[in-house]
Amino acid sequence: MKKIYLSLIVFALVMTSCKENTKEEPLNDTTMEKVTLAPISDSVLESAVIYEANVRQFSPEGTFDAFTAEIPKLKELGVKIIWLMPIHPISMEKRKARGDLLVADIEDPEERKKYMGSPYAVADYSEVNPDFGTKEDFKELVDTAHENGIYVILDWVPNHTGWDHKWIFEHPEYYTKNDKGEITDPIQDNGEPWGWTDVADLNYANPDMRTAMINEMMYWVTDQNIDGFRCDVAHGVPLDFWQVAIPTLRKKKPLFMLAEAEIPALMQGDSLFDMSYAWEGHHILNEIAQGKKEVNAFDSYMMEQKEKLEANDILMNFVTNHDENAWSGYLKERMGDASQVMTALTYAMPGMPLIYSGEEYDLDYRLSFFGKDTIPKTKGVMWPLLAQLGAMKNTAPALNGGKTAASYLRIKTSADNRVLAFKRQNGSSELLFVANLSKDPVNFTLEIQGDFTNAMNQEKVQWLPNQSHALGPWEYLILMK
């Protein structure tokens, strides 16, 4: 502690003029400096795990502060990117309660309070949801993530706004209108509505609206120091908007851009989105887990991706997310006993694996989409599994899944309809993934031999030519060389 000795007269003068300044000075300025995280880069993406944070449901409080307190724990899972579901105020007008029921149609005022609406019905792009806290609380969240070596991206909703948004009143020309001149909810290409009646469709034929949208996004980059965006319904926005918006935003700082879409054009070249959803792959994993498809469906999928994607395109692999959990079912509801092997596969295959809030705590129910819920916080089987997989993803070059991903080579087995075997390699780092993707035990041989280390328990494994191997239902091995 630095002590300053003054005469009584000077001390009295200082105390009179600066009564409120009672804080002691630090030893030097550097002791108060916060860790500065280098801008996000392609090298980070190679070994990253992304975490989808549902702030509303993450804690009983449903606040930024409650989530911020848990950020250091996410490092244990290898998380390098946090994707925050929309943090903006939610429109009251046409707010949904469940299905087609609107909150306004509920007579009981106490019952109405249970429904908070869809976070994708944004009332104000430049503010935060007061239920979550303040902008100062949000800044603390971002700072804490950066101090822990984790980047933060915002869920951005560019396709539509809530019906309370100020543009509705100040700039109705920013919206799509029907033949009667009325603002409409989003419409499909076939002219039919999506059923998203709680939001109003934005009109990208209006250049002023495009400029306003870019300015709104820029605020969070320049003033709130975020590291990128996950863009909702990215395919519903014209490609030429992204061709202007993304390079404009990146002039300020490097950004990570995730598209909620599975359209290769959105990732073309080096100036658009870095990553998009592996929706087709996810559905195939669901169907294999449910016994509706076999391993050949996964093989066909991997060959198709190689043909239609550019070498530097990244896919986000997942077994669950907010949509799947809310509308299709929680992980074990959809994948049952195959849940763990499918989770391991999303880490082992090329791409970036996703963890959704609660997955790490064996979430076994559907979270409310329009109301308040809370995820469990008791560690079961998934936390240690995700921690092991995350450590491998972070450290093994053979699992690189970014713009210069490790190679992927399918290994032939004598039971290819049930056994998936492939090798990933990056220089001297080599990984072999072998899994029984069926509900029955299987015996098989495969065209590989050598000495390996079981990555899950560190045991040494020697595989010989023509050796018979056995795996139980949904059993898998991750072998390192």
Task: Summarize the topology.
Blueprint (H helix, E strand, L loop, with lengths): L7 H10 L24 H5 L2 E5 L1 H4 L5 H5 L2 H4 L4 E6 L11 E3 L2 E2 L6 H4 L22 H13 L3 E6 L3 E3 L3 H5 L28 E3 L5 H16 L5 E4 L7 H12 L5 E4 L15 E3 L1 H11 L5 H14 L5 E4 L4 H7 L2 H5 L3 H10 L3 E5 L25 H14 L11 E4 L8 E8 L2 E8 L5 E3 L5 E5 L5 E4 L5 E3 L4 E5 L1
Parallel strand pairs: 1-2, 1-12, 2-5, 5-8, 8-9, 9-10, 10-11, 11-12
Antiparallel strand pairs: 3-4, 6-7, 13-14, 14-15, 15-20, 16-19, 17-18, 17-20
Helix pairs in contact: 9-10, 11-12, 15-16
Description:
- With 481 residues, the chain is an alpha/beta fold.
- The protein has one domain: Alpha-Beta Barrel (TIM Barrel), CATH 3.20.20.80.
- Helix content is 29%, strand content 18%.
- The strands form five sheets. Strands 1-2-5-8-9-10-11-12 form an eight-stranded parallel beta barrel. The protein has a six-stranded antiparallel β-sheet with strand order 13-14-15-20-17-18, covered by helices on one side. Strands 3-4 form a two-stranded antiparallel sheet.
- 40% of the residues are buried.
Can I get a quick summary?
The chain is an alpha/beta fold and 481 residues long. It is built from 16 helices and 20 strands. It has helices spanning 8-17, 42-46, 55-58, 64-68, 71-74, 109-112, 135-147, 166-170, 207-222, 239-250, 279-289, 295-308, 322-328, 331-335, 339-348, 382-395, and strands at residues 49-53, 79-84, 96-98, 101-102, 151-156, 160-162, 199-201, 228-231, 256-259, 275-277, 314-317, 352-356, 407-410, 419-426, 429-436, 442-444, 450-454, 460-463, 469-471, 476-480.
